[in-house]
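Customer escalation, tier 2.

The customer says the design service returned an amino acid string that "doesn't look like it belongs to this structure." They asked us to rerun it and document both sides in this ticket. The original structure tokens are below, unchanged.
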């Protein structure tokens, strides 16, 4: 089935992208049905140790197998879900799916790694964000250390105080916190100090030209040093070339996430990577 889907991807994908703009109302109604009909799927992209290629973690990334439009990447529906509020339900579904998956892997005696999930600003600014995570942990009975949430700057821009409090609470519960897409927007170094995070993910846009643009290289070095000074682990996003990897190794970047090691993959494929524990490239 994966192969078949893979073959169809290109065609369906271009239909979705270049066909007439999909009616938002229709897509919204479809989205509600999608939750009931199990059309969403979680893909996993490994995060590996920069020096050894050992799989240390993975990011959960949602996809939608739409019955007519085919395979939809998050960019085609997450912004709409953020507008219409469905993002909360979708976020809950992703978090629960990941927990159930972790439990299943553990049941099969696999050496599991922590999984990070993306939380949209709306999802994070809800009043009940803490109690929702608490009930998820109670319900699924997984070790909170196996969960990491990824937030972006848009989550704390408007209500820094609440976010600082909630993050502290989540970390007390044992859930880890990553700051995603770091370096884009207005994220500042002062905020790093206040937010008390475990992981910092350097945005792909810096990594992309790290081998050619001196400025990007210098900025990346600075971010890594600063993070390490604050006891924060650093992940480079979007690493695609050996050259980028070599540079990031020299700079002591802790973890790599990118196509060089693996694209986001379906659960079955990720499971076989977990069995090996390492990715060679
Ligand atoms: P993100 O959280 O920054 O996720 C990383 C994105 O970079 C993923 O795109 C991933 O496929 C892509 N990527 C990773 N390595 C490479 C690389 O080497 N080269 C290139 N060109 N791209 C790479 P994806 O899966 O399309 O997701 C896009 C965004 O959608 C995510 O960015 C995240 O903001 C959002 N998203 C995905 N899943 C969820 C979810 O479950 N909930 C929420 N709220 N947002 C999600
Ligand atoms: Mg992310
Ligand atoms: Mg990111
Ligand atoms: Mg992003």
């Amino acid at each position: 089935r994966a192969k078949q889907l893979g073959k169809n991807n290109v065609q369906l994908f271009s239909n979705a992208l270049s066909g007439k703009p999909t009616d938002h109302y229709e897509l919204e109604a479809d989205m509600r049905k999608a939750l009931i009909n199990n059309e969403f799927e979680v893909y996993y992209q490994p995060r590996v140790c920069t020096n050894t290629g050992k799989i240390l973690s993975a990011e959960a990334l949602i996809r939608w197998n739409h019955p007519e439009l085919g395979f939809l990447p998050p960019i085609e529906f997450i912004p709409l879900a953020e507008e219409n509020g469905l993002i909360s339900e979708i976020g809950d579904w992703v978090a629960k799916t990941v927990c159930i998956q972790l439990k299943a892997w553990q049941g099969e005696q696999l050496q599991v790694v922590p999984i990070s999930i993306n939380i949209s600003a709306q999802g994070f600014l809800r009043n009940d964000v803490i109690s929702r995570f608490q009930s998820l942990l109670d319900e699924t009975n997984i070790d909170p250390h196996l969960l990491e949430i990824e937030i972006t700057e848009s989550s704390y821009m408007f209500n820094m105080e609440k976010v600082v409090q909630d993050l502290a609470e989540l970390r007390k519960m044992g859930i880890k916190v990553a700051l995603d897409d770091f370096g884009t927007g207005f994220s500042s170094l002062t905020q790093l100090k206040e937010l008390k995070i475990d992981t910092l993910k350097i945005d792909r846009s810096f990594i992309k030209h790290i081998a050619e643009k001196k400025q990007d290289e210098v900025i990346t070095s600075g971010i890594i040093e600063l993070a390490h000074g604050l006891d924060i682990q650093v992940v480079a996003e979007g690493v695609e070339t050996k050259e980028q990897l070599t540079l990031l190794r020299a700079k002591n970047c802790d973890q790599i996430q990118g196509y060089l090691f693996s694209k986001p993959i379906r659960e079955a494929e990720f499971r076989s990577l977990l069995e090996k524990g390492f990715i060679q490239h």
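Tier 2 assessment: The sequence is consistent with the input. The radius of gyration is 19 Å. Residues 110 and 221 are 35 Å apart (CA to CA). Sent an explanation to the customer and offered a walkthrough call.
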